[in-house]
Amino acid sequence: MTMKKTLTLAGSDSSGGAGIQADLKTFQEHDVYGMTALTSIVTMDPNGWSHNVSPIDVSIVEKQLDTILSVGVDAMKTGMLGSVDIIQLGAKKIADYDIPNYVLDPVMVCKGDDEVLQPENTDAMRECLLPHAIITTPNLFEAGQLAQTGTIKTLNDMKEAAVKIHELGAKNVVIKGGKAFYHEKAIDLFYDGHEFTVLEEDKINTSYNHGAGCTFATAITANLAHGRTVKDAVKGAKDFVTAAIKHGWKLNEYVGPVRHGAYNKFTR
């Protein structure tokens, strides 16, 4: 028996809801073999839950990647990368190992923050990683930064940003609108370079959504590893993360993660 092999190059969330912890839980739920290369360790202040990001030396990141890529992978995603050096390293390894099905989750901030952690990283993602991506999965803020269109407020703004991001090299783009718009549905927009597909779900009235973005991108990665088309991989991931958000739960007074096993437990 063999399993499809997947790689996540991302940060570690010590609270367990996002980052590589979310990625591994999502990979497991999709029956793929998940491997991890850590770029940073994110810890939280118990008094107020502010984030602290501790980078991992780029030489150690490279050793992790070479360990994993020596056995080969069927799909790969990147999340929090932390520095231009690591972004450039990731791009080099994707090219050197001819990695198929690369998913770029362009993490720019920790949830709860509203400023880019390091603006130079956005430039490096735009230049180095987008051209390799079979799909990228920005939220509204990240899409505006990648496309350099500024704040996205409407569906037409989403379409404009998606086109610009596609022109930068990503083969497909899905922009996560979620429940941000004043609209009766939670809206995401998929663009394959030819046509737009609006993905809608009923809004879920919850603040327990920690890790939703990581989970969505990772579910796409796992679906691609299984050979699904990009559009079908996105639709499947949308169903998976919707169930995870619907069954999110309170971890402490500051945060509530999504429930990664909800789709398989409650909808199958």
Automatic annotation (TrEMBL):
The keyword Magnesium applies. Its EC number is 2.7.1.35. SUPFAM superfamilies: Ribokinase-like. It comes from the Bacteria. It catalyses: pyridoxal + ATP = pyridoxal 5'-phosphate + ADP + H(+). GO terms for cellular component: cytosol. Residues 13-258 form the Pyridoxamine kinase/Phosphomethylpyrimidine kinase domain. Keywords: ATP-binding, Kinase, Magnesium, Metal-binding, Nucleotide-binding, Transferase. One of its GO terms (biological process) is thiamine biosynthetic process. GO terms for molecular function: ATP binding; hydroxymethylpyrimidine kinase activity; metal ion binding; phosphomethylpyrimidine kinase activity; pyridoxal kinase activity. It is an enzyme of class 2 (transferase). InterPro entries: HMP/HMP-P_kinase_dom (IPR004399), PM/HMP-P_kinase-1 (IPR013749), Ribokinase-like (IPR029056). Belongs to the ThiD family. This is pyridoxal kinase.
